[in-house]
Design a protein that fits this description.
By secondary structure, the protein is of the alpha/beta class. The protein is built from six helices and six strands. It is 36% helix and 18% strand. The structure holds ligand CA2.
Length: 165
Amino acid sequence: MWYRGSPGSRYDIDERCMALKKILVLHGPNLNLLGTREPEIYGSLTLADINARMEERAEKAGAGIDFLQSNHEGALVDAIQQARGKYDFIILNAAAYTHYSIALRDAIGAVDVPVIEVHLSNIHKREEFRHRSVIAPVVMGQVAGLGAESYLAALEAALIKLGVV
Ligand code: CA2
């Protein structure tokens, strides 16, 4: 499901007038369930809550932001490939695909858009199979374990790297 900055927002207006910096946020499988189960691990905010917080911050900084959640590996690969020339930064929570998707790793490696890997939970202190991220070697950096603030910290870093704040 795609979500875009609200119509008539500064994002919409700026996009027609000047080259504004654009960020794509990708959420992987099962993250649509956030806020409904396992709040002790993933927190009680829904994905819509997290997106709203990020949108508010991006708008304040004058950057554009779009969101996509998909349970399908191929849809995420397509979104990464299509980000080329359209987005300046990707913030990616690949969820379970983090631990085994060579397809996602190859897509990130093939697209010249910087990626920050995000996790709500601290994958390094959970089950052993979560300790390994196959995408870590091809991303700019990783933020994990801060709950929804992982996304906001990644966004802040992206805004700084893009020179908009
Ligand atoms: O901590 C993270 O953000 C993860 O990427 C979340 C993934 C998990 O497989 C990774 O190891 C770490 C799981 C996302 C599933 O989210 C749910 C949310 C609520 C209820 C059930 C699943």
